Amino acid sequence: ELMTGYTMLRNGGVGNGGQPWVLRWSSRIRLTWLSFTLFVILVFFPLIAHYYLTTIDDADDAGKRIFGPRTGNELCEVKHVQDLCRIRESVSEELLQLEAKRQELNSEIAKLNLKIEACKKSIENAKQDLLQLKNVISQTEHSYKELMAQNQPKLSLPIRLLPDKDDVTFPLPKSNRNCRLHNCFDYSRCPLTSGFPVYVYNSDDYPFGSSLDPLIKQAFEATVRTNVYVTENANIACVYIILVGEMQEPVMPKPTELEQQLHSLPYWRTDGHNHLIINLSRKSETQNFIYNISTGRAMIAQSTFYDAQYRPGFDIVVSPLVHAMSEPNFLEIPPQVPVKRKYLFSFQGEKIESLRSSLQEVRSFEEEIEGNAPADYDDRIITTLKAVQDSKLDFVLVEFTCKNQPKASLPTEWALCGERDDRLGLLKLSTFALIITPGDTHLVISAGCTMRLFEALEVGAIPVVLGEQVQLPYNDVIRWNEAALIIPKPRITEVHFLLRSISDNDLLAMRRQGRFLWETYFSTSDNVFSTVLAIIRTRIQIPAAPIREEPAVEIPHRSGKAAGTDPNMADNGDLDLGPVETEPPYASPKYLRNFTLTAMDIYRNWNSAPGPFHLFPYTPFDPVLPSEAKFLGSGTGFRPIGGGAGGSGKEFQAALGGNVPREQFTVVMLTYEREEVLMNSLERLNGLPYLNKVVVVWNSPKLPSEDLLWPDIGVPIMVVRTEKNSLNNRFLPWDEIDTEAILSIDDDAHLRHDEIMFGFR
């Protein structure tokens, strides 16, 4: 039983049910002892250690203290701590110094804050003063404008005045030979503001029209259709023009018949005043059939004149119409260099009838000098030129007999030899081209001479005219001594020496001037007709019609990017550029010189003005007649200004614009698909004084990028779209240009502001 009970207790109770309880009780006893043991160790062991250490530090022997606090000197005695002590002392000193500086800076900041407040007050006062000054300036400018408006009213385009009378009675001159503009021209039909209207008769409406050369008639009609002065209203016309030649020989009317037909013209008004009879020649053998016709007070324009027929300042010597219905082939024209060619001079011709045979008498040279009869120097000319050819000092070619049948010519006139291509081939090899005038001095000009002059100028052979009595085409408005040599026949023995003594520079200048004259006045039917009208218009002092402005089709673009300042623009030297603030756009005054330029330049050019570009008055609106040209810009852009208006250097600095109180210029910039380069060039124009606007000629068919941001340079930027890609687009008269001065540059041109100002002034 005892064993059984013990077993039961061991198993946790009676039977099997008490065993779990006993196990739980024994595990609780173990955890309790374990916790108690850990508590004793964690609590009492630190207390014991603290007590022990405190007891050691409280010992009497100070040298045995290990954990107690020490003084600073004792600590520094430790060797490895000495460096740290020095660092601490240095840092402390620096901290003291920084603190002192901080206090000084705080005091200075306080003083500066006081000064800033004082400056702000000064700025506010200055702004108030500036505002008052601006108001005073604005009032002064307004008063000045009012005074200017009272004393110098702004000019506008005058009202066009037209003739209102159909017939005016003139005192008849004693002879038609005495006709001049003052006694044979009706100025009342040509007011200054009339615009020079010209009425051209239709030759087909009259019997003589069927006799006209078809090519000349077609070329003349084509030219008339495109001329700006031609009007269909005969009642307002200033000048009436009728074409009567060149006529074809087989069907040419009799002189009496042609005279009756001319007098029956509807606006002939009994005497033909204000009429111009044009007789154009396409061949060298054109006859002077108007010589035996009474033309009354009508002006005559043709290539052949006798001295009894020609009225200086009234009639016009015109050039032959070689290229009637076709443009000249400029590719076949030889270059102007080299200056000297194979032959020094050349001449080909044959004289059909001599002067002596035509006069049926022979006089001595002494009698001829006395003026009893014109002297015939042709024999001496032939002898002298042959001697020069035989001397072989220079290569020359002279032929006084044609290999083939010579062309028909007037008596005493040297007939042309060969065909036109053969003659041009010889002239291309000649430095000079001899032109021997007719032996009959009463024949002041002939179609054969004008044909020789035309061909020489065309291929660059310098004309040498033997006979000072000759009247060359447009001689009253062209200074022929700049493009040709006019030598009296008695100096034939000195011709060779004279031609050899001319320098290459002078030769090239004369050749270039001759080429200019040929291209401008001789080459096409348009040039011939326009030149004739320009001469009459200038004689009666009517300004030229303005050239039609080219409409500028603007390309939309966005602006807003602030333009930067190029550092290269700052170095302007001692040149005073102009106002610091950009002036608002100011258009140049118009109509100031339109109606006085012609008269003033006629007097100046006929009495002075040396040089090839002072030949004849010219306005910016007339493309026919040359004059001075004032250049501004890089490249070849120029603005012709006729009378030479404009400031110069020192005077411009004293008065902005020279001759006018205010003056600005326009920049015309040509570009082609170089957006970055273009933007840089536009930015360099920022702040440029006297700049009115910038016209960008967009030469590409491809439009600029839509997201391209254009710079804001303070003036308008006009982007113009062109119809085709052409370098000549920079010279078109865009209607957006409002200033006289134009700076024409490329988009890659880099000019400083002082350089542009120097050119402008």
| Corresponding CATH architecture of the domain at 343-352 and 375-523 | 3-Layer(aba) Sandwich
Q: What percentage of residues falls in helices of 4 or more residues?
A: 25-40%
What quaternary form is this?
Answer: single chain
Overall pLDDT: 80
Through-space gap between termini: 145 Å
Count of helical regions: 19
Organism: Dicaeum eximium
Main location: endoplasmic reticulum
GO cellular component, one term: endoplasmic reticulum membrane
Subcellular location: Endoplasmic reticulum membrane
Description:
- The protein has 761 residues and is an alpha/beta fold.
- Among the domains are: 176-317, no CATH class; 343-352 and 375-523, 3-Layer(aba) Sandwich (Rossmann fold), CATH 3.40.50.2000; 550-589 and 663-760, Alpha-Beta Complex (Spore Coat Polysaccharide Biosynthesis Protein SpsA, Chain A), CATH 3.90.550.10; 592-623, no CATH class; 625-659, no CATH class.
- 35% of the residues lie in helices and 13% in strands.
- The protein contains 19 helices and 23 strands.
- The strands form 7 sheets. The protein has a 5-stranded parallel beta sheet with strand order 1-2-3-4-6, with helices on one face.
- The longest helix has 70 residues, at 82-151.
- It starts with a helix and ends with a helix.
- Mean pLDDT is 80; it is low at 1-9, 12-17, 355-374 and 603-651.
- Residues 194-502 form the Exostosin GT47 domain.
- The chain crosses the membrane at residues 31-53.
